[in-house]
Amino acid sequence: MVLFDTLKRDIGRFRMPGVAASGRRLKRILPTRLYTRSVLIVIIPMILLQTVVAAVFMERHWRMVTERLSEGVTRDIAAIIEMIEQFPNDGDYSRVSRIAAEQLDLNILIEPPGPLPPPRPKPFFSILDSILADQIRNQIQRPFWIDTVGDSRLVEIRINLDDNVLRVFTRRSQTYASNTHIFLVWMAGTALALTAISVLFLRGQIRPILMLAQAAEAFGKGQRMPEFTPKGADEIRLAGSAFILMRERIERQIEQRTAMLSGVSHDLRTILTRFKLQLALAGDRPELHGMSEDVDAMQNMLEGYLAFAKGEAEEDVGELRLSELLEKVRADFQRKDKTMTFRIEGEDLISVRPNAFTRLVDNLAGNSERYADKLHVEARHTARWLTLIFDDNGPGVPPAAREDVFKPFFRLDEARNIDKSGTGLGLSIVRDIAHAHGGNVTLADSPLGGLRATVRVPA
Description:
rod-shaped, alpha+beta, 57% helix, 11 strands, four-stranded antiparallel β-sheet
């Protein structure tokens, strides 16, 4: 048993790489869209079925009919030869020619003896030549010559008799199943009609799935969703109804959270305003400076909480120039005697939600401005993606904490995304904005020695 298990494991280890490689190649070849796969599921079995039916028909029915027709014509020719031999004194053989034409539907000529023409080249598909030649060879057993190529409507047969040469002209339909193409045409035409009906039906079934996917994508990006009504099969309608209910629950939850935080922010702002008024009335006293800073910090925290809860989902997509946005960032760095450079590859004008995207850039640049002296931004705008790379020479973020810093209210001991008045929401808002645009934000080591933040969103 142990030997058997070892052998089976070795065989599996030997075969699996080839099987896995074949599976990967097959996945690359096969289409990925549901519509294309569904069409192939309908078409491929139909093609295979018709191929098998056509092959069987060609091999059995077509060949059998051709053999029967060729056998009948050969039998008639043998009868004509028998009559010629029975009436050798009939010089012009007019009676034989008349009987052949009227009774057998064959046109014959009896010529003086002479050599038969050389064999003509056979066509590529020579089922008639082979079957007719076999029948003449078996029934008549005389030298012969046949021509099935010269006149497409007629077949000429020459047979070398003892004293003369018999030339027989017969219609191709008498020796060959010439109407077989009708079956093939009907089969191909029916297949095309059924395929067209299947394609139209599949398109109607897949369209509701595409509409559901577009609605889900628009909702995931925080865009205004087009009017969506579940359609299609029962399962697709069920999925669409479930999506609508989920969207309503999420929107209701967001509205409740935003309303709650707005109310809390309004109430706390009133109290903070009183604090500020009391501090202003108390005058410029050194012992009150710390309290004034705490009040400002609480004000900033409230604004951050409210902005994080509200988000930018209600903003419409518009156009924004990267050069103008990055020039403002460079001006802020210059006011603080710090260096900021940028480079743009591709189109300067981008389609985003302007306020939200400006906030994303300001938050990332603000972190670098707070903890670094130098920042370089690389912007690459292609046909499909917009990529922004922020490289600075600050202290960076430890690799183990690069995902945690995107969590709301997460703080590092040596935080580079918050300061004494921070809330721990800067990078959380950045990632939320990137997700709302259908992209993402990742952190890595920068060539400048600090942190690299990469923003990648669909163009």
